[in-house]
Design brief:
10 helices; 2 domains; Arc Repressor Mutant, subunit A; Four Helix Bundle (Hemerythrin (Met), subunit A); mainly alpha; 243 residues; elongated
Length: 243
């Protein structure tokens, strides 16, 4: 029984290694859309893996929208429009392959598209428990500003709490995008603003607007905050010429 469990863990570990390695290569463009992925035998030889581990890795990549598989024709890379960019693993592979500041800009543009409305909905729904969670996350950000906590986790918790406060379950999967965005961008954006955590004043304005139930003000506060970060990152790219 113990050996079976150990063998299963080893297979899972190899499967993860194959999945992550090939996923990063696909996101880097080493296997562009329409290209054929290396075959099962080559995967086994390259990673020292069993056929079952190789097949499981291909299934995972297929489930994330990266591959289409056909009998005797191998696996081909699907068009970009089919890739599940909201999947945490896919976001991680993209993060590893993208030009740093260009990646941050893309994520901020997407966040502008949904977080402003999320803030407005959170204000209009006015759920006391959910708003208390936003307040708690804000206080954690304040503590992190003096070195008592993680600035990334507290910032992510604030924005994720806003999504939860919308009362709309379709906002919830977007938490993965926010978490990845902040994990990756916080060191850059906080350096641009010259402080160790996200802009407390701007986050405070979002919180106050939501607590007051003012949807229009909440929408504007979130828009102003994200737009300011986006503008600074774009300016930094223009000044340095680096993406």
């Amino acid at each position: 029984m113990g050996r079976d469990k150990m063998a299963g863990n080893q297979t899972a570990s190899v499967t993860d290694e194959i999945t992550n390695s090939l996923g990063r290569e696909i996101l880097r463009g080493l296997f562009p859309p329409g290209a054929t992925l290396i075959g099962e035998e080559e995967i086994c030889a390259r990673f020292g893996a069993s056929r079952s581990a190789a097949r499981e890795a291909v299934k995972i990549l297929w489930a994330k929208g990266l591959l289409v598989t056909r009998p005797r024709r191998g696996s081909r890379i699907r068009p970009l429009k089919d890739w599940n960019f909201l999947d945490p693993a896919v976001l991680g592979w993209l993060r590893a392959s993208a030009t740093p500041r260009h990646f941050i800009i893309e994520l901020l543009e997407v966040r502008l598209g949904f977080e402003c409305e999320a803030a407005a909905l959170a204000a209009s729904r006015n759920n006391a428990n959910e708003i208390a969670a936003i307040r708690e996350a804000f206080e954690a950000m304040r503590a992190a500003s003096s070195g008592q906590g993680d600035p990334v986790l507290s910032d992510a918790a604030f924005h994720e709490a806003v999504l939860a406060a919308t009362g709309n379950r379709f906002f919830l999967p977007l938490s993965a995008l926010i978490h990845t965005a902040l994990q990756y961008s916080v060191p850059t954006t906080n350096a641009l603003f010259g402080h160790p955590v996200g802009d407390l004043d701007a986050h405070g304005k979002v919180l106050e607007a939501i607590e007051s139930g003012d949807s229009a003000r909440a929408r504007k506060a979130m828009h102003d905050m994200l737009s300011e970060v986006l503008a600074r990152v774009r300016t930094a790219v223009e000044l340095t010429g680096a993406g």
